[in-house]
Write a structure and sequence with these properties.
Order of helices and strands: HHHHHHHH
Number of helices: 8
Helix content: over 70%
Largest sheet: none
Shape: globular
Strand content: under 5%
Distance between the termini: 31 Å
Number of strands: 0
Length: 177
Amino acid sequence: MPQAKKAYFDSTKGVSLNTYIGLFSIAVLWIPHGIFTRQPLLTYSNVISLFFSLIIIYAISRDNNNYKIMLYAFVAMFGSLSIYLLGSLTIRVSILMFLTLFLRIPQMYKEKKKKNIEGISIFTWIIAGFGNSMWLGAGIIKKDLGLIIPTSFNVAFSIIIVLVVLLRQKSLTVLVE
């Protein structure tokens, strides 16, 4: 929610479109996984993530005056969802793990390469890290590798994103003073 608010009302500079298309697509995939594995909280939390990711994608589209971006998001969503729903449990878990593992990398790359953090909400990544650590715990308790593996990486990547933003903010403060 903090990133959606910042993107919609303030700025999307430094926010990775690829990360949010990935988050949007992965939320779509976690919803049926939560239904199939009888984990309603997984389903509900991803419905909420889907909504906020869509707001961010819309804000990036609006700021770039390129509404084709919305179409790309929906194509990615329907493609992933089709493969997920038609595949076996192994394929489903593999798709979830692959997408979840790599969806934060574009944001990390953009932070490192562009060095523009203006539109990034650090609270979003703190909440993501905390939330994923809770899902990691749930995965460990349920012995669900489909939760354990991707959420482990998500916790680590969220921590890295927060640290990079904090370091850039500190270096920017030093430069301004």
